[in-house]
Specification:
It is a single-pass membrane protein. The strands form 3 sheets. Strands 4-5-6-3-9-12-13 form a 7-stranded mixed β-sheet, with helices on one face. It has a 4-stranded mixed β-sheet with strand order 7-8-10-11, with no helix packed on it. With 350 residues, it is an alpha/beta fold. The chain is built from 9 helices and 13 strands. Bound molecules: 2-acetamido-2-deoxy-beta-D-glucopyranose (4 copies). One 2-acetamido-2-deoxy-beta-D-glucopyranose binds next to loops.
Length: 350
């Protein structure tokens, strides 16, 4: 057995000395699908959102009065290659019997919602079951046995209620035993790390034996992510389970980022920012995320949506949502998250 193992390793090494074959081993060959531009495409959007069952009131922009529709018409065009067009049937066929799980805050819910709508547009009469719960909502396409699941977790690491109050435990990750059984995992966390005051869902932070009232939030984010990264390295069999981390989803509350100083939300935005990048550069959290991902020895794919989404100041609900708050954090469905899912499919289908 050992001998065969060594032969296999030797063959692999020989093959990988050939750069053409090695490139095929990476997700996108030599094309960076995250570098490109938004182009106007008459055939967009991918689906009619009014036909998608149960879009959550936070994301259903057309239903809640958005009248400009140009924001639905943009397709992401990588500079050096083309994205595959959406083929929901081949996804469901290829992933027959499998489970894909989005894990994170409401931005994960946003992306899950978009994917459900994309699949429904292809299979409007499919038999589906949806089991709603906390933390898991499980949407299953019965004919294919494919489950598209969202697991609500604001920080990935745990919050536990103890005598002293709610404790955010930066080095504890209990959801992992469920997650690692999935076939595809798409993680995301960021939104809540800076919440303070009444919206902050914890009273203390704990690392090891140390309990503190508060700490530098970027440091806390890095510590929590590192716990997650160690979990991937020790617990996840990445030959069985594909692991992706979604890059930081940008917000649009600061007009100076798109050369309109004084503007404090996205209410009047109907077109993307022109050009390849906004003036603000990537959010600091992106660099923290990248530095943590670099240290993981197992294969984790960065679903690098930050820069391309920064251009989409027009993609948010603003006041067109069911709770009538100003929301330049989440994204309309249909809209930008459909592109995130196309990019996700590009990296898990090949
Ligand atoms: C993510 O994509 C942007 C835009 O193409 C790029 O500038 C950045 O370096 C990428 N990040 C990583 C870690 O590849
Ligand atoms: C992308 O698609 C366009 C239009 O169909 C085609 O002209 C072009 O050659 C394609 N590019 C690549 C890299 O395949
Ligand atoms: C779905 O069912 C409706 C009503 O039975 C039918 O009109 C429609 O053609 C079906 N659509 C597909 C794609 O099978
Ligand atoms: C999701 O639902 C399917 C079908 O009922 C089930 O087989 C699967 O175990 C569920 N997954 C989770 C994580 O609850």
């Amino acid at each position: 057995m050992k001998v065969y193992g060594w032969i296999a390793i030797t063959i692999c090494m020989v093959i990988c000395l050939n750069p053409c074959i090695c490139l095929e081993e990476t997700d996108e060959g030599n094309c960076n699908i995250y570098e490109g531009s938004w182009v106007y495409d008459e055939s967009y959007p991918l689906y009619d959102s009014s036909k998608c069952p149960h879009i959550r009131l936070e994301y259903d922009c057309l239903k809640y009065g958005r009248t400009d529709k140009e924001y639905l018409k943009y397709r992401w065009q990588p500079t050096n290659c083309n994205l595959s067009s959406f083929d929901g049937k081949s996804f469901l066929t290829k992933f027959k019997g499998k489970q894909i799980m989005y894990i994170g805050d409401s931005v994960s819910l946003n992306q899950w919602q978009s994917f459900i709508c994309m699949l429904h547009s292809i299979l409007p009469n499919a038999t589906v079951t949806q089991v709603d719960g906390e933390p898991i909502t499980n949407h299953t396409f019965q004919e294919y046995g494919v489950s598209v699941i969202v697991y609500h977790s604001t920080y990935l690491v745990d919050i536990e209620v103890e005598k002293i109050g709610r404790v955010l435990k930066l080095d504890s990750l209990k959801g992992g035993n469920i997650w690692k059984e999935m076939d595809v995992l798409v993680f995301n966390t960021w939104l809540w790390w800076y919440r303070s005051g009444p919206k902050q869902p914890w009273d203390y932070i704990q690392i090891g034996d140390k309990i503190v009232k508060d700490m530098d939030r970027m440091e806390a984010f890095k510590t929590g992510l590192t716990t997650w990264a160690k979990w991937v390295d020790t617990d996840v069999d990445t030959t069985k389970t594909k692991v992706l981390f979604q890059g930081i989803s940008p917000m649009h509350y600061h007009g100076e980022e798109w050369n309109e100083p004084g503007v404090t939300n996205c209410a009047k935005e109907t077109t993307p920012i022109n050009g390849l990048s906004s003036t603000s550069g990537l959010p600091k959290a992106s660099y923290v995320l990248e530095s943590v991902l670099e240290k993981i020895t197992k294969h984790v794919h960065l679903l690098n949506i930050t820069a391309l989404s920064e251009l989409r100041k027009d993609g948010h609900p603003s006041s067109h949502n069911g709770f009538h708050g100003m929301d330049c954090t989440h994204w309309c469905v249909a809209g930008v998250p459909d592109t995130w899912n196309l990019l996700l499919l590009e990296s898990i289908m090949n």
